[in-house]
Amino acid sequence: MDKVDRILDQWRTERPDLDVTAMGPIGRISRLMAYLRQGMDPVFHAHGLNGASFDVLATLLRSGPPYALTPSELIDWTMVTSGTMTNRIDRLAEAGLVERRPNPEDGRGSLIALTDKGKTLIDRAVSDHCRKQEELLTPLSAEEIETLNALLSKWLHQASSSE
């Protein structure tokens, strides 16, 4: 029994009229997210980043050469508001990790691009990040990871299509 099982037992005792089945997976996912953040944050901090800045830099890196996206594309990939993205870009630009460039396809728009300094930093950070993620998943076998990934993908696809 884990802590979530004990919580579910308490609810079943206190409110036997409720079906608390859904609390199990949702409670465990919530607790796992806190555990994962706690595990990954030190990797970000070791590179002078936080989860938000890592997300922007990693999104630019995985977009491939020239490692540049429009602000709208960054917002779409990172699922944050335009105001939040503007603040993230401003901070990354001040640190010399990204730069704003004119968008050759849209004279009124701009591109956010990795600088050489930003690319070097995110290349190192993402390598450490991947190693840490592998470490965090060590309690699961390869088959269990594959099954979990398939189930979460199914759930996420269903949740996304209902938006």
UniProtKB/TrEMBL annotation:
Annotated PROSITE patterns: HTH_MARR_1 (PS01117), HTH_MARR_2 (PS50995)
Pfam families documented for this protein: MarR_2
InterPro entries: HTH_MarR-typ, Tscrpt_reg_MarR-type_CS, WH-like_DNA-bd_sf, WH_DNA-bd_sf
Molecular-function annotations in GO: DNA binding; DNA-binding transcription factor activity
Keywords: DNA-binding, Transcription, Transcription regulation
Domain HTH marR-type per the UniProt entry, residue ranges: 1-157
Source domain of life: Bacteria
The name this protein goes by in its record: MarR family transcriptional regulator
